[in-house]
Amino acid sequence: MVRCGSVWFRKYGNFIDNLRLFTRGGSGGMGYPRLGGEGGKGGDVWVVAHKKMTLKQLKDKYPQKRFVAGEGANSRVNALKGSRGKDCEIPVPVGISVTDENGKIIGELNKEKDRILVAEGGLGGKLLTNFLPLKGQKRVIHLDLKLIADIGLVGFPNAGKSSLLSQVSHAKPAIADYAFTTLQPELGKIVYNDFRQISVADLPGLIEGAHMNKGMGHKFLKHIERTRQLLFVELELYKEELQTKPVLLAVNKMDLPGAQDMFHVLMNQLQNPKDFLHLFKKNMIPERTVEFQHIIPISAITGEGIEELKNYIRKSLDEHANQENGVYHKKQLLNLQISNTISYNEPPPKNGVTSPR
Fold it and tell me: 213-232, pLDDT tens digit by residue?
């Protein structure tokens, strides 16, 4: 019988993004010395990605503390080769990073049915082991969830991200007017007339100093790493490489009085950022300013600019995908050219076969 069960976890509200599990591969089966029989290998423990799975479901479904694979069968007279122990599969959501107790990355699960071996079963008893079985591998692992989405909506509390998500997609996030309105990431999809779909993640509102892990800080900022593009925000102080992501800026709440005047002021600040850096604290000034691909004024309440924003999102993703494909093909071509050059320049082997004269 395979025992699979539960976990230590961190959660924010009902949202769980990290689990700590104990795993152990199954022990091998006993060998049969007199007849040279080999015991079966113990089962392995795998982490397997499923689209409709969450870490909370995993925690609720397996409220125990261990994931242990089945033991290999002993060798016997009527079955000298013992059967293999049953594997244990841990179902997890897509977008999981698996690390060991020391923080070393074991692997990542980025699409459905991806699987990672986390604890190997022990060998069955055989001649090399004096017919004695080996125990399975023991390992404590951490499952760390980082959302995967095409677009990450990031901004300060009350910027209207939840309202925007409900406008551009079929998502129905809870909308209110207080700090950290979004206590957990919300996912939605933009569906176009030609049935193209683009996933959008509304990430919890930032607070000043989130890069220094204030508030919920890094617990939610890490989700940004798994989005292809960003819709708004200054993030350099958390992790500088996030600045390499293509960024769009949606200026929301254009329905409010005086919004147009404020928008013109904002555009002036964005075009001449160095003229306004003195307004920030020294430790909040980024070394590089964010360059936005497109700046779109919108209102999530009235719908102003929403269709234009959706078109820019699609256009930006397609442009980025084409650039990535171009770089990949150039790299492949370069590798092929290098390979051909090496093969042409290599001398024939000394003991090689030569054709007769």
Answer: 444 445 556 666 777 777 76
Q: What Cα–Cα distance (Å) separates residue 241 from each residue in 56, 235, 238, 263, 282?
A: 30, 9, 9, 28, 21
Q: How far apart are CA 304 and CA 254, in angstroms?
A: 8
**The tokens 């990031």 sit on which residue?**
154
Alpha-carbon torsion angle 49, 52, 55, 61, nearest 10: -100
Q: What is the pLDDT of residues 135-183, one digit of tens each?
A: 999 999 999 887 767 887 776 666 566 677 777 776 555 444 433 334 5
Tokens of 99: 């690390």
> Which residues, in sequence order, are CB contacts of 213 under 8 Å at separation 6+?
none
Burial class (CB in 10 A: 0-12, 13-18, 19+), 51: exposed
Checking phi first, is residue 233 left (phi over 0); if not, alpha (psi -120 to 50) or beta?
A: left
Q: Which residues contact 281 (CB under 8 A, 6 or more apart)?
A: none
Structure tokens at 65: 């503390």
SS3 content of the chain, % helix, strand, coil (to 5): 25, 25, 45
Q: Which burial class, exposed, middle or buried, applies to 281 when counting CB atoms under 10 A from its CB (0-12, 13-18, 19+)? A: exposed
Most distant CA pair in the chain: distance in Å? 93
Q: Which long-range contacts (CB under 8 A, 24 or more apart) does 268-275 make?
A: 270/295
Helix, strand, or coil (residue 313): helix
CA 96/CA 265 separation, integer angstroms: 42
CA gap 219, 227 in Å, rounded:
15
Smallest CA-to-CA distance from 149 within 191, 110, 115 is with 110
Residue 244 in this model has a pLDDT that exceeds 60: yes
pLDDT in tens, 45-85: 999 999 888 888 899 998 887 899 999 999 999 999 999 99
